Amino acid sequence: MKKLLIGIMLILSSHLVLAQTDLHSHMIPDSYLEVVKAHGMEMDEGFPIPVWSADAHLQFMDEAGIQTAVLTMPAPQPWFGDGAESAAICRKFNEEAAALKAQYPGRFLFCAALPLPDVDAAIAEAKYALEVLGADGVKLATNAYGQYLGDAELEPLMAYLNSRKAVIITHPNKPSAVNDKLISTVPLASYEYLAETTRAVLNMVAHNVLVRYPELKVVVPHCGSFLPNALPRFKGLLPVMIQQGYMQPVDVDANISRLYFDLAGAATDEAIASLLTITEPAHILYGSDYPYVAASALIGAKKTLEGRLAAHGLNLEDVLSCNAKQLFNIQ
Question: Is residue 9 included in any domain, yes or no?
Fold first, then answer.
């Protein structure tokens, strides 16, 4: 009887582990990589695009105890001056992601790539992906060649996504203006990605996007980036800017309360503590950033993260599983 009980406990434990969801991972199919290389953009973000395969991704997930990974297109945003080409690249990516989701039920979800900065084409692709392919949301870059989240040009897209109660996974891109000499020495992802994400979110807040479109569920990557530090300064400057006529009144806290945050990147004790100053535990979700970090390193980091989450009083099952299920309305 004792052996039977131990066996049942092990099975239940294994099931609990495999229920975990990775909110931040990337699919990098050959079709995407080939076109990026053809345009000489494979180092546009300042570091090489890693090799990826579905089999390797699944192996990492099994070893890490992850049941489901949410796939998104990596940077760079595939726009090379030809709108039709960009739309075709995104369509190919989305159809491949949908096929992978169908091939491995319960293992992959995907947030569709959209051919921004062409807003009309992006809306058309969002409709196809969400209504035909069964996409679980959309991925939006922080900026598409100078067109930032929160900009007025994106209003029709946001209105459509709001009507669909869409999940939006955001991800930083190279800013529209950078010092090439600087980023060739100091990796862009080490600091500018965090600044870029913060820049885009604050632009959304300044334009009251998240309050005006309350059905959107927006995921901010990399432990909230610089938002815990930037928000107090933003709030302090806002009354002055309003008084001088440069900004309109906006409820900062109401906007921020609509955001979700993944823990991809350096989820240190300090980062977790800072993140908890701007959000609630129900809006914090696990993310790996696979395959941009080696699988072995991610597995070790995940174990360390679990200890840190517990130390901060966060429920592991919620952060690793339940919060994601609620976000995507998974029964």
Answer: no
